[in-house]
Amino acid sequence: MQNIKNDFYSVAIGEDGIAIMTIDQVNNPTNLFSNAFILKFAKVAKEVIADESVKGMIVTSGRSMFMPGADLRELKNMGADPAKQLEGILQFHKGFREIEKGGKPFVAAINGTAMGGGLELCLVCHHRIVLNNPRIKLGFPESKVGLLPGGGGTVKAPYLMGIQNALMYLLQGKEVRPQQALKDGLVNDIAENQEELIEKAKAWILANPTPVQPWDNKKHKIPGGGFWSPNGVQTLMGAVGNVSKMTHGNYPAQNYILQVVHDGLQVPIDRALEVEARFFTKLLGSKEAKNMIRTGFMGMQAAKKGKARPKSEPKYEVKKLGILGAGMMGAGIAYVSAKAGMEVILKDVSVENAEKGKAYSTMLLDKRIKKGRSTEEKKQALLSRITPTDDPNAMKGCDLVIEAVFEDPNLKDKVTKQTEAVLSPDKVYASNTSTIPITLLAKSSQRPANFIGIHFFSPVDKMPLVEIIVGEKTEAKAIAAAVDYTVAIGKIPIVVNDSRGFFTSRCFGTFVNEGMFLLEEGVPAAMIENIAKAKGMPVGPLAVHDEVTLTLSKYIIESNPDSNKHPDTQRAYKIITDLIGKGRTAKKDGAGFYDYPKGGKKKLWKGLAEMFNSNVETLDKETVAKRMMHRQALESYRCLDEGVLNTVTDGDIGSVLGWGFPIYTGGTLSYIDFVGIQQFVNDCDEFKAKFGERWDVPASLRALAEAGKSIHDFKKASKKSAAEIKKMLEPELVAFANEIGISASVDDLKKDTLHRVLSKLGYN
Fold first, then answer.
1. How many domains are there within the chain?
2. 50 and 25 fall within a common domain
């Protein structure tokens, strides 16, 4: 056997007879577990086994990551040909089993993150040693995208870690650091550096010339007891109940994982791998997995990389960031920005208030240190990048300023003018408003082209989504700056166009309102909350309303000049003000739709039944569920139809990350396909007849349904810009003026006539 080098890896055989494979997939951004790689890996492994002069092989990586997972791009057409897919999976299992039973030692020298298929490659090896680096993660994240580990991980993990521990990894997509992986039995050893990693791998190969995998060893005992042990039976029975409680049957992957573990532990390993392959193939064709991969992986990965930024603009680097307002939002923005290495100027009305905002970062860092995820040195370095101030002049020299003051247009007007007086004219100014139109706020600005909305979600340090809002006069430079900044702090941006409430607040509000309307109509509060959670919402609409506070909802309605034009808004306003009148304002105040006793669990307020005349017979369970879920989807579609959303994917990502719409549906827009687009339209038509105009279906959605199309076939109607229309109309206008002999100047005529024509077409 000779040394090898190709686009996937290099293999070098040392004088000691040990081959070292260094995986380095030059045509991929990182090493990926793909069909092409598997075939080449299996071919080299066969050569190693057949060559008597080679004693064994070490598998390691030439990248910073060992192999972070499978190439999900290969799953674009998943489910199209199940028989062919099953055959392919069984074939690569056959190749892997030849390695495991080949009689020569293979060692995984894991020098970077190994997840999913990458970790399953390590399980094919007889021994696993990992570098003791806290940045390295190991785990099986497949359940997070609606799949199960299909490369042997589901059936092999219990042999290594025991049934209970393996289920924690498999069902939850648990990710661990090297020390925990060693403790759990996922790896066999740890090395402190690269040199020791290879030395230990070589030593193990020389000491174990004929290794046997645990699942091939009849004397091997599963940690904690096998399938028929008291612990094994109890664990699996408990897991069935817990999975049912947590998923409500919405996520088939978890049920299939349980079945594979249950069946796989009772049959020989080769039969178990076939069971795993069949369930994996079944999941590949499921709409849940397709939705989760499209939105949760493909969509979010593209957004993370800044797909939404204008391609024509150069990169906008934010070295110095100004933040106006040191409350919860401002403090959170300061933390994530300083963490990304930016210099942060945190301004409030007093230095004392600004210091309190900085203290939030101190609190978060202390927690990280306590958990062993940071050090005192790193903490001080981050804090040194945050400067509290009450001086407006401190914003001078900032590359970007984010206003995060209270939702009051007058206050925002004041700080905008105050800041722009010292901010360089070519820099970008952003507002963190959650509901007020950016175009309205931009009227306070002397440079509206560089004015944009950057809407964070609370708590900023945990919530991954950032909604970037483009005003009528916002130009490409500001959009690029907002996207580049968001990507730099590790968040996921979506770019939307201006509207009151934008996309997230507007559509999230329909969930809250529909919950209140159901309550008002007599549906018991507990039924509303439980059905919402059963459909996959993180919490019910009443509980989440307590979180955001009823007083804030009241203020938002009162501050909207168009509120009185919408009967449903007035209906919601009455419910909110009636509750506030009874002292029920928010979770933070101890009373809302729920009671929040100190030191106790929240409970629905008993007075709701009397206040709203609860009647369990009012609506059936299915209708209650559809009203809450369909309503969010319908409003999301309106945002798409009106041009607030630019793409279906933006709506899906925004709904999943913004307010927790269940990922198994793909998001609020993919949910329409999940239900069935014609069924969705039929349901909304029925609801319009019963419950009012808010259920009116846009013509474009009806057309998609009638054509049998998918929501992903939506195409935005072409609308020419004002500049394009002017260019089209000017020649005709000049000719017309000359023909009729008008004495006024052509420029005056053009301005006046074009202004009126464009106004009629909906342009300002």
1. 4
2. yes
